Amino acid sequence: MPINIALLLASSSMALSPTEAQIDQQTTPTECASLAPPSSLIPNEHRRALNAEDLVHLRDIGPANNELPESSLFTISPDGRSVALQLRRASVNTNSYCLGMFVVPLQAGATPRAIDVGGNLIRATLDGFGKSGMPSGVPLPITPQWSSDGKSILFLKRENGPTQVWMARADGSGSHALTNSPIDVEAFLLLADGTSLVYSSRPALIQARAAIDAEGRTGYHYDDRYSPVLSDRPIPKGGLPFAFTTFDLASGNTRPANEAERAALDAPAPRSPREDETVLREPGSPDAWLSTMGSTGLPPDTRPATRARNGSVMHCLVDSCANAIGPVWKPQAGKSVRFLRREGWANSLTGVYEWNLTTGHVKRLYQTQDYLVDCQPLGDDLLCAREQSLVPRHLAHIDLKRSRAETVFDPNPEFTDVSLGRVERINSLNSQGLQSYADLVYPVNYQPGRAYPTIVVQYISRGFLRGGTGDEFPIQLYANAGYAVLSVNKPRSVGYDGSAKTADEVNAKNFVGFTERRSILSSIEVALKDLIQRGMVNQKHIGITGLSDGSSTVQFAALHSDLFTAGAVASCCWDTSQDAIFGPETAAMLNRIGWPKFIDDNRALWSKVSLAQNPRKMRFPLLLNSPDDEYLSTLQGYTALRQADMPVDMFVFPDEHHIKWQPAHRLAVYERSLDWFNFWLKRELPDGGRRLAEAQFWEKLRDRQDRASGAMSRTHSTLEAEGG
User: Fold this and answer.
1) Is the distance from CB of 470 to CB of 673 less than 8 angstroms?
2) Distance between CA 602 and CA 586 in Å, rounded?
3) Most CB within 10 Å of its CB: which of 366, 505, 543, 710?
4) 36/84 Cα distance (integer angstroms)
5) pTM metric for this prediction
6) pLDDT for 630-641, tens place per residue?
7) Angle of helix 515-533 relative to helix 503-511, nearest 10 degrees?
């Protein structure tokens, strides 16, 4: 059963993962020589075909899908002339990452300067569903902090041991660890006096794990701490506290942090939220913040707010202040508040607005289809980590007076040398009357008038079209192989009608009659049928993919849609054993929102969604590339499909999670999904090696299905004849 990542993140918090699970192989100096982008490139007259390695080896600023949007991905120097950021680049050869802290001058043609290189990837962990410290594959955003004089930069780094706070000279003359904590430093803040910092750690989590180790000597008690799909041992209970320590930069001495220091580190900062989340700032924060104005319905009505000179709170009540997102700030004059908001068809656009505090007038300064991942004020303008449909994440300067943007730092200049399919935005209205949109990526070397095999990728289509949610399904690799690709942004949840007040209520509304699943599938089918009518899509050769919520849609489509020829997912499935597989705490949540209990006999419901209960109703072959901490949830459906001779194949990836983190695994899932669709949609085989051997196994699956179908047809004919 796939976990809905939006649901999980909405009910969870993030922290650093435990040291013992995080030590990956070290990259070599040779492997990391290309971490810094080239300072100059010779333009190629002809673009070459993109391959899977081009996507795996992209230099990243922060997590690829921006899974932790409350964290800054860069920081601006005190003089406003440079930014500090971490670059990350995968190495398939060593199955690890090259990591480096860079200073990037904010001027055209400037060369980024490496001030620290090396270390281990730090991944975030989840707190949620009554548990603490659950591992994930999401890279933790490393937010650097400048000293007040701009000469030093502080940041988190792990190097074969616990995560520490490091300091690097901004001129690149050296770096070293500051703290010597026996356990991971999880977050830190350089205090205003510039002489000390406060950091958090979580000794309670280490102690809880040690207690579980000791418990194992007499047997683990099976209780709410268990989630068998994730672990064969209990997981520490949720709500474990953090410890706060103050570190003196001059002496290296530490002491317990006082309340003011703890509050400073805990203070939230507004950042661009996820599609289903709003990051709020309370009225006690300086300057400006986002406010729900006391609204209790979901999603909340978030609007900019500020404090008047007399101390009263002012809210922006005009329509163009609705759907506001972070950041929210006051320009230097202090006479207005600026903010970002989602707007346009299905909130597919982002606008930058100014609220005049004297007149109350609200004016739009800038609007874009681009994804503004993380924006920070820079004088009278904005500096943003930006993504465009065909351009990976980069830094862009947005001139708000002239309403235009320009790139100031591109970490992947080589990407301009590869062939990419052009993109067309498609807006549609689904069967629930909800707006949705998708991005049609044309096949490279597209020929008008030809109907192309097509692959659907889910479920967020905002920014660089890389691999869909979870980055598993390589959009431009498909386009280079001759596919049209429909990158779908799912519509607003049916349960977000303003009446639900909790996440459980939203999910309960979504669950009734599988309304949410029907809504998403309708958005996909409406867009596809339009493209079929246009003669763009070959209706007999359509594939569908998904991770998390997208996987749920693939499962539903397998029993309810005749449009698709093949499917590929990261894991699945909703099925009758899910209460046992996910453990008591998650089972209770699923039961609250409407899923049957394990003891319930609800065949009518399971007939609409369970692959295990309906294996012969499966309408297309299915590929599963499952992480090892989710594959148990696939076994019931997988086993039933195999026993029914339906084409299904599964691969299990060790030390992986809901979102995969290992470069070798990402390359494998990229290539395998392409081979899978080539086999079922185009009847093509790979050239050789492992990939050919896998496709030859798929030939056996197809032959087995053909024999089973033939035998069933003969049985039906015999029964009809006898009945006659």
Assistant:
1) no
2) 19
3) 543
4) 14
5) 0.93
6) 999 999 999 999
7) 60
